[in-house]
Structure formats: structure tokens, C-alpha cells
């Protein structure tokens, strides 16, 4: 590690020594911030990274609540008590952005997409459906199409440093041991997306038959 740090510094690319140092001055886009893992991550960013620039939290309106109301409800839990008590100014760094991961293009307004493309340097993508009885078209749109659309948005981000995707733990269930490598998949994701999108519009009965497989 010391050799890597010295070599990086010699090449003029100084590595941050801490997480807080990495996030200094960075603007972060966070999806899945209302989920179990997302809430904990959001709290840690606010509490441990005092020099973070802005955290854009993508949320959708739900159950009659606007995204602003959902953000207020999200923060109004004991998890964020120490942020409110010790770093209340950190809450001012939050910006909520309306989206819907189940819709094409994340249902982002173009004005919001431009702001994100111009300002975001770190993407933390945690949004996913963890229900195992979702209709196939819903699961694919939320988990796969949303990731594709967010990656497409990331290609427009002029300051992008990192794109982190937190996938479901329920992958490669036939493996008994796991290594840090990419495992082959049963089908090409592009073909699966095309099939689901086409069948969902023309033949929902056939799509239901494909769901179990």
C-alpha cells in the first residue's frame, strides 16, 4: 500500500487517505436512499464526510406524498439523531430529485438530468426491487432497465469519478462458494430487456408464462 501511495504521488495522482477525504468537494447521486442499506449509507455520508458538496437523493412520489415529504419522513427517524444533534448543517447538503426507476429514463425531468450530468462526480446506485413475487416486467424494469438508464446518464457526467452499483445478494444461487469475479449469466441482458419490453406490450400472457423460467 505504501509503495502504491508513493508511486501514485510521484505520478501526480495523490490517493485520498480516508473516506472523508475522498468525498471532500464531491457531489453524490444516491438511489435507494429510502431502503435499509441506503438509509445507513446516507447517514454515514452526512455524519462522517463534513466536506461533501451535495447529496442528490433520487426518490419517487409515493402513497400521496411528494418527494420532499418523503425525504422529510426518511430523515425523521432515530438513525439521523446524531446528525441533527452534531452536524445539523449537513442536512442542508441534501437535494431531493423526483424520479421513478420503474419508468423509462428514470422519469427524470430533463432539467434535473442536466444538473446531475454537470455536477455529480460519484454515483451510488442502490435502488432495486427486493420483492420476489413482482411481475417479471416490473422486476426487470426496476432492477435492470433502471441500471442501464442510470449508466446512460453517467456517460453524460463530466466530473464522474466512480459509479458503484449495489446488486441483490440473491444472485448465482447455484454457487456454493463465491470468488471476487464475474460469473457467466444464463442469458444476454440486452436480449432479456428486449424480450420483456416487447412481450409486455404485445403478449402479457406469454410474459407471465416466462416469469418462472
UniProtKB/TrEMBL annotation:
GO terms for molecular function: alcohol-forming long-chain fatty acyl-CoA reductase activity; alcohol-forming very long-chain fatty acyl-CoA reductase activity. The keyword Oxidoreductase applies. Gene3D superfamilies: NAD(P)-binding Rossmann-like Domain. Keywords: Lipid biosynthesis, Lipid metabolism, NADP, Oxidoreductase. It is an enzyme of class 1 (oxidoreductase). Its EC number is 1.2.1.84. InterPro entries: FAR, FAR_NAD-bd, NAD(P)-bd_dom_sf. One of its GO terms (biological process) is long-chain fatty-acyl-CoA metabolic process. Pfam families: NAD_binding_4. Residues 30-186 form the Thioester reductase (TE) domain. GO terms for cellular component: peroxisome. It comes from the Eukaryota. It catalyses: a long-chain fatty acyl-CoA + 2 NADPH + 2 H(+) = a long-chain primary fatty alcohol + 2 NADP(+) + CoA. The keyword Mitochondrion does not apply. Belongs to the fatty acyl-CoA reductase family. Catalyzes the reduction of fatty acyl-CoA to fatty alcohols. This is Fatty acyl-CoA reductase. It comes from Gryllus longicercus.
